[in-house]
Amino acid sequence: MNTTVLLFHPNLAASRINARLARAARSAGTVENPVEVRDMYALYPDFHVDVAAEQAVCEATDRIVLQFPLYWYSSPALLKQWQDDVLAYGWAYGSTGKALHGKEIALAVSPGAPASSYDRSGEYHYELHELLRPFQAMSNMVGTRFVAPFVTAGTLNLTDADLEMRAEAYHVWLTSEHPELDLLG
User: Fold this and answer.
1) What is the CA radius of gyration of the chain?
2) Is beta strand 104-110 parallel, antiparallel or unpaired with respect to 35-39?
3) Are the C-beta atoms of 23 and 12 separated by less than 8 Å?
4) pLDDT tens per residue across span 156-168
């Protein structure tokens, strides 16, 4: 299975969590199951997404992973721009938009707050899966199978040892045939 990780972090050089997860992703691939990591902010610092190139990348892979830190209960701005530009009517959805049918879409998301904050009785009063629901709806719209997200919660207080464990788990998750069955943490 070919996996492409689209990494949306606006300042990867200053990132501890997403930079480490990206390194784990880059080392995850094999000849039989390659994993490509694309630093989207490095590719499109001006937000002018090369639609044809991105559509070609999506067509050539089996699993698309959208990796990003959770900002204001959502994704970084370039991910939304990418969705608006790349997932075009007639290509990704609509009566003739079947380019992504049969592929998988997964999220690798890293909220700063601990998982306990994303609970009805927690600090934010919403569960994380509720905040990620628009991505599941997008997956349904474009005809892909939505894979249970890989979540690295509590990144603001994650120890180096815990980060290494998450990076190892991400490596395994990315290469798993059935990632929804793996420990998500």
Assistant:
1) 16
2) unpaired
3) no
4) 999 999 999 999 9
> H helices of 113-159, where?
128-131, 133-142
Query: From residue 30, how far is each of 7, 123, 162 by CA, in Å?
Result: 19, 41, 25
Q: What is the pLDDT of residue 180?
A: 64
Stretch (H or E) spanning 6: strand 3-7
CA distance 158 to 26: 21
pLDDT tens per residue across span 109-136: 999 877 877 788 878 778 888 999 999 9
Residue 170, burial from CB neighbour count under 10 angstroms (0-12, 13-18, 19+): buried
Global pTM value: 0.94
DSSP, collapsed to helix, strand or coil, labels residue 64 as strand
For 42, phi and psi rounded to 5 degrees? -70, -35
Q: Classify 70 as helix, strand or coil.
A: coil
User: What are residue 110's phi and psi, to 5 degrees?
Assistant: -130, 90
Distance (Å, whole) CA 3 – CA 42? 19
| Interior/surface letters 17-37, b for 16+ CB within 10 angstroms, e for the rest | bbbbbbebbeebbeeebebeb
